[in-house]
Amino acid sequence: MHRVHREDRVHRECCSRYCLFPNLRKALCVLCLLCVLCVSCKHPKPSSPFTTPPQQEQTFDLEEIQNNGELIILTQYGPDTYFEFRGEHFGRQYLLADAFARSLGVTLRVEVCRSADELQSRLAAGDGDIIACNVPDSLHTNENQYFRGDTIIRSWAVSKQSPALAKSLSAWIKVNNKNLLALSTIQIRTKSGKTYTPRRRVSAPIRNLAKGEISLYDRLFRQYARQCNWDWRLLAAQAYQESAFDPEAVSFMGAMGLMQLMPSTARSVGVSMQDVFLPEHNIRGAVRLINQLNQHYSFIHNESERINFILAAYNAGPGHVDDARALARKYGKDPDRWLGHVDGYVLRMAEPRYYNLPEVQHGYFRGSETYDYVGSIRVRWEEYKKVRK
Q1: Domain spanning 62-186: which superfamily?
Q2: Which of 171, 294, 321, 377 is most buried, by CB atoms within 10 Å?
Q3: What is the pLDDT of residues 260-289, one digit of tens each?
Q4: Are 76 and 119 in contact (CB under 8 A)?
């Protein structure tokens, strides 16, 4: 023991004087390096411009959501959950989530998932704050808290990492439980506070064939049809399909007036809510939209075919029609022809196996309505051609 102690002492002394014992020096260097590594493992070095700091998971709870000004919901396309129509967003689950977001004083952002598994994984990853569609009981996990309300909200989910948000949502559902149906129903209100409920008074499709009168608005149809290079009788046929010539018609989706302009569409074509029920303003706005759609489909050189696509896009929105065109192309049909080509895929857009395909960017819509819309206007236009041009 004494010998070892002595040698150790000698070694330390020699090292302090930088003595030239290579083996000993090498051993000491290795020992020092090991010490440095141990210390660095316990105390990570601060990040530098040349190193990437470790990422820490951030949980967004109610306070962060309100500070950020945005609530993000995860949902799926479907008639009850979420869908687009003429540039507006619909679906009972979406409308309820929007009402909840407004109660928090924030805006709503929608992230669409293609499967229930994706809903769960993205909530766990923090990509959204709430799953705002009905999660099957078989997919419930211990990581989430689930909510029910009335018969409309059957199974929404919030991560247990967001307890304040969960508490707020639970309280909101409890307060509004008897009012969920009203909150998920479209209502049109003007700035003056007037509320329009869905209505449609049906008039005869031809006012007086002997006198050559289709409607009370023939003068306006003639005047504004020139601005989009349409036969005025085609514009009249479309108006009848939209509102049955009722200038104060309001649809269950919120479309308004003779040509059934949606609120966002009316704004985009320069028609105010105060003027949207005035026939001339409504027709003028509709013609501006037709011109926009004519430009959108300008690559379809056959005029008759282009009219089909304009009508379809007026009814469903160009995004849905373009999705149907993409599917027609995928399955070997001509995306620039309507009858027997694109129209068949418009009909399929209410089926999950089609609207969940990656080529479909705008999800679910009730394609049968658009299919009938184009066909009915075409038939009525032929009838109206009996009236002098």
Answers
A1: Periplasmic binding protein-like II (3.40.190.10)
A2: 321
A3: 999 889 999 999 988 999 999 999 999 999
A4: yes
Residue with tokens 């409504």: 282
Q: Report the distance separating Cα 289 and Cα 374, nearest Å.
A: 16
- Give the amino acid at 209: L
Give the residue among 340, 349, 339 at the shortest CA–CA distance from 369.
349
| CB-CB neighbours of 70 under 10 Å | 15
Tell me the pLDDT of the chain averaged across its residues.
Answer: 84
Strands (E), 83-150: 83-85, 88-90, 107-112, 130-131, 144-149
**Strand 83-85 to strand 130-131: parallel, antiparallel, or no bridges (unpaired)?**
unpaired
For the chain, what percent of residues have pLDDT higher than 70? Answer: 80
112 near 76, Cβ under 8 Å?
A: yes
Q: Which residues contact 188 (CB under 8 A, 6 or more apart)?
A: 195, 196, 250, 254, 256, 263
The pTM for the full model equals: 0.68
Sorted by where each begins, the domain ranges of the chain are 2-42, 62-186, 218-384
CA 389/CA 384 separation, integer angstroms: 9
The topology under which CATH files domain 218-384 is: Lysozyme (1.10.530)
Lowest mean pLDDT among 70-79, 192-201, 353-362: 192-201
- Joined tokens for residue 222: 């003639």
What would the pLDDT profile of 119-174 be if each residue is shown by its tens digit? Answer: 999 999 999 999 998 888 888 888 899 998 777 888 899 999 999 999 999 999 99
Residue bearing the bigger pLDDT, 306 or 115:
306
Any idea of the CA torsion for 370, 285, 110, 73, to the nearest 10 degrees? -100
